[in-house]
Automatic annotation (TrEMBL):
It comes from Parapedobacter koreensis. Keywords: Membrane, Transmembrane, Transmembrane helix. The keyword Membrane applies. This is DUF4153 domain-containing protein. The chain crosses the membrane at residues 65-85, 91-111, 120-139, 145-166, 186-213, 219-240, 252-274, 286-305, 317-340, 352-377, 389-411. The keyword Transmembrane applies.
């Protein structure tokens, strides 16, 4: 996109075509190029146009609003299926929670992106296969492969949503980074929606209890569940129609929490060494350790997606570089621990899943760290860091599909 903008920087018609073809990608590319183009009148115009913030809240067109309301109703009905059908709640929610939201979000973006049925064939097909596989797996409560499938299937569905968001299966690093940015914005918006909903729910239940009506159980089994199902859809609609609402919040959160998490992780590793906790023999500690790594990795992804769009701050890049290095150290400890457990006690579905995930994360972190090093010491472009993350995302999707669909067969549904 950057090369195309530079080629057509003096051609208003071509710039307009580029913008309409990919608005978010155009804005990211132009914003990073603008410091080099400030002396051009047309560049100044586009900078003002792209960064103009309307103070009013947009609710979109009536057609958009009706479509989202229909999706919200469908999400609510899906969330309440166990109440309408003779289906065990535990069975339904452990296996099908992802299907309450992700297919509807995918349909929304397919509609907004005007995707043809041909382009929807792959993501829709994978979702259908996932729905059939997860619901026909043997209902063995002690099955590790069933648990792993239930945990990894939402990531597969999330990946299919990413394909619909991007608009194609092929590589498009700018749109993939845009997808990560959308997820960061959505998390912020959902946090606000759920916090507001929690306050409203507490007030409602409390007020009714004052007049002798105990509606708590009924309220949370009906209104609460429907609200949880609707939150991602409403949050998506608000962030897409009003990008200014959280567009500046996500970068601030990334800048604040990146150094804090860096300090926390360093202190945690030092404290772990003195605590006597042993990830090589303590299974629960290793699981918590890996959960921490996944959280830190997600923060790095979102921070890079936000930071590399336009920043020239070496301090921000340094923090991300150090955070990646420390996370590599932590990941190496986890990887060696799970390798030790496999060599001592043999392979199991859980150990295989953790080993594969840690290995993939380690490779990705090394690639990201190399690019951050090049930015710091070899004056490379920050966009290269984002491209590495965007390029690697399908690898995680493939691994999630392997764990979800193949592990039950490979390990005999154990």
């Amino acid at each position: 996109m950057k090369d195309k903008i530079l080629i057509h920087i003096n051609d208003p018609k071509q710039l307009e075509k580029l913008y309409r073809a990919d608005k978010s990608g155009f804005k990211r590319a132009f914003t990073s190029l603008y410091p080099e183009l400030e002396d051009r009148i047309l560049a100044d115009y586009w900078n003002e146009r792209l960064n103009y913030v309307d103070g009013d809240i947009s609710w979109g067109s009536s057609k958009d609003l009706i479509t989202v309301l229909i999706a919200v109703v469908l999400a609510g009905l899906l969330a309440k299926l166990p109440a309408f059908l003779p289906v065990d709640e535990a069975f339904f929610y452990t296996r099908n929670t992802g299907f309450i939201v992700f297919p509807l979000l995918s349909a929304y973006f397919a509609w907004k992106n005007r995707l043809s049925p041909k382009k929807m064939l792959f993501p829709a097909g994978i979702m259908l296969v996932g729905l059939l596989v997860i619901n026909f797996l043997p209902n063995e409560k002690e099955s590790d492969t069933l648990l792993l499938s239930c945990l990894h299937l939402p990531f597969v569905l999330w990946s299919m949503l990413g394909i619909v968001f991007v608009g194609k299966v092929g590589n498009d690093s700018e749109k993939r980074l845009g997808f990560l940015t959308y997820n960061g914005d959505l998390l912020v918006m959902m946090a606000l929606i759920l916090l507001s909903g929690a306050i409203l729910s507490s007030l409602t239940v409390g007020l009714f209890s004052l007049i002798g009506f105990n509606i708590g159980e009924f309220y949370f089994k009906n209104v609460g569940i429907v609200g949880l199902a609707a939150a991602p859809l409403v949050g998506t609609y608000l962030t897409r129609t009003n990008p200014q609402l959280v567009g500046k919040v996500s970068p601030v959160i990334a800048k604040i929490f990146s150094p804090l998490v860096l300090v926390m992780l360093i202190v945690y590793l030092i404290a772990t060494a003195y605590s006597g906790k042993d990830p090589y023999n303590d299974r629960e500690f290793l699981l918590i350790f890996n959960a921490l790594l996944v959280g830190v990795m997600a923060l790095i992804f979102f921070a890079i997606a936000e930071t590399t769009k336009a920043t020239k701050s070496r301090a921000a890049i340094w923090i991300l570089f150090l955070l990646a290095v420390v996370t590599i150290i932590a990941n190496s400890i986890a990887l060696s621990a799970i390798s030790f457990r496999i060599s001592e006690w043999g392979i199991t579905p859980n150990r295989a899943a953790v080993l594969g995930a840690n290995a993939l994360i380690l490779v990705n972190l090394l690639l990201v760290t190399i690019q951050l090093f090049r930015v710091l010491f070899k004056k490379a472009d920050t966009s290269a860091v984002g491209k590495v993350i965007a390029f690697y995302l399908p690898v995680y999707c493939l691994w999630a599909m392997i764990v979800t669909f193949l592990f039950p067969l490979l390990f005999g549904f154990a």
